[in-house]
């Protein structure tokens, strides 16, 4: 991209009219760098320091109509959500996010102001987590999509994998469960309230800082709840070769979820067990370990029985609780 | 993703039928890791060593119908091209690619075998450059698109930026120029030969290893030729605040280009000056420096005149030689 200074931060017209480089320049002008950034946007690549000597990296893609609906959320919210969802994977390894790059495909008719909002959302969410949006690519497509890659630093801790759970461990979660799924259900029915749930769907509040704390506290395995609690603990069970049982009475079902579920004729526990978009963290800790603040014990790890490495709720396999398959 | 072992590497049916996790498992089973990879695919994020203490990062997005046509290239070729184009940005900083993550959006109807070919192409191109495909995300969309993020290591050299060109420097290039553009023109006219040009469009041969060598040889600025030689040198001119003049007689116009251009009634120099998909490298070196092997001097850097920081050919601004705008 060129170094032309931004003319205004409220451009008129579409991104097609403004042009790729002008849009990129304007997005770049609004980004905040951090001390980790040796070289930010504007060159062929960015340079970020890696004090740990290793870099953690993950990518998350969101497509309009699949992961979000641009008529259900503002573009700044979509940008925030994309950044937060991607950073959550870094937190789930026990690492701290340091840098983000984003590939955006968008229809040329998209108003440039909407694209700047998207960039602001990405940049703001990154900055609030102590990271920086250091680069990107912008191209044309029929539908809006974003691929956000996040890099992070382990600060000397070992990465917390999905495969480390052992029989006898305690299963714990932190962050919201079921809020975003409830919000999505509300929006799908044509409602716009309760605002707390709708907003939880639009912009999650993943407990990013809890990941490194859990790693330092001896978490044996950890996963970002992006496909639903049962599905993601299923990944842990498979990778670790263990069985996991959840006590439903230990799951916090917020009164708002209970209330909305009653109004819509739904079981709020379904949202808690299978909703993914909140990006809570689930982890296992050694038996008897003191859980870090904010973590709640919800179950236990056992030796796999006849059913193999499964996840049960109150001792039974729950029907219809498979993972979220983006082609399903 | 789960750790289910791959059942076969020639699956039947579409990716929608096979399912997201099964497709990812099969792609992952075919990837090759390197000594830099501390943790590969299969967890929330990958971990790659960064001996330099810094990481170079860049993302490149390719969309079917915009950057490639899946009816003009096989999916393994599309995967290779995406990986090579993205790694070229890392080379242009003087760094060595170490790891790639890819976000793929695809129609559920895409045959699973095509998706595995795409993965094989990405993985093979990475491996040939000494890097590894360490993670990804797969989701549903109406059109096929790939966002490839590459990280790289500087091995102790300073990053070579676009802004370092100084009056008096020599401008040099390495790699093919115009081949892919000629191949695209051939394909657009409904022809499938000459094979060398068509294949150059399908899978570029970017001189990745030349980037770190140029950095070690004192290159003052460097850029990946992805928008066309004039446009990308224009980025260098702007970022460095210099004027660049190219001597057209110094540009190698391959006999194949001359021949095809004559047959199609085109000027081969247009392809050389404005074609981008070859991912050649352009750099500036101090006056009198010995150019590394494979680099050809094609012009010189001067103080900007009345026209400002422009790129001229034989002293004149070339008409219609602006950059490639993906919304243009």
UniProtKB/TrEMBL annotation, chains A, B:
Substrate binds at residues 67, 277, 324. Mg(2+) 3 binds at residues 44, 89, 224. This is Thiamine-monophosphate kinase. Pathway: Cofactor biosynthesis; thiamine diphosphate biosynthesis; thiamine diphosphate from thiamine phosphate: step 1/1. GO terms for molecular function: ATP binding; magnesium ion binding; thiamine-phosphate kinase activity. GO terms for biological process: thiamine biosynthetic process; thiamine diphosphate biosynthetic process. InterPro entries: PurM-like_C_sf, PurM-like_N, PurM-like_N_sf, ThiL-like. It catalyses: thiamine phosphate + ATP = thiamine diphosphate + ADP. ATP binds at residues 136-137, 162, 226. Keywords: ATP-binding, Kinase, Magnesium, Metal-binding, Nucleotide-binding, Thiamine biosynthesis, Transferase. Residues 42-152 form the PurM-like N-terminal domain. Its EC number is 2.7.4.16. HAMAP family: TMP_kinase. Belongs to the thiamine-monophosphate kinase family. Mg(2+) 4 binds at residues 44, 58, 89. Mg(2+) 1 binds at residues 60, 137. Catalyzes the ATP-dependent phosphorylation of thiamine-monophosphate (TMP) to form thiamine-pyrophosphate (TPP), the active form of vitamin B1. Reaction mechanism of ThiL seems to utilize a direct, inline transfer of the gamma-phosphate of ATP to TMP rather than a phosphorylated enzyme intermediate. Mg(2+) 2 binds at residues 60, 89. Mg(2+) 5 binds at residue 227.
